[in-house]
Amino acid sequence: MQTVIFGDHEENTLRQFRNCLEAGNVIGGVLCADGHYGYSQPVGGVIVYDGQISPSGV
C-alpha cells in the first residue's frame, strides 16, 4: 500500500488517517498539507479503495 503525507499534522489527525487505511479494501492514501481532523476521516485526506467508495469520505 502506498501512502503519502504532506506537511506536519496533529497526532489525532495522523491517528485518524492510519485508522482509515485499515478499513476496507484500501490500496493507498494521501494526507494533504492542509489536512485536519474530521468526522470519520481527515479533511484533506484521500483514501483509495479497490472496488468500493466510502460515503463518509465524499
From TrEMBL:
The keyword Ligase applies. GO terms for biological process: RNA processing. It comes from the Bacteria. Keywords: Ligase. The keyword Glycoprotein does not apply. GO terms for molecular function: ligase activity. This is RNA-splicing ligase RtcB.
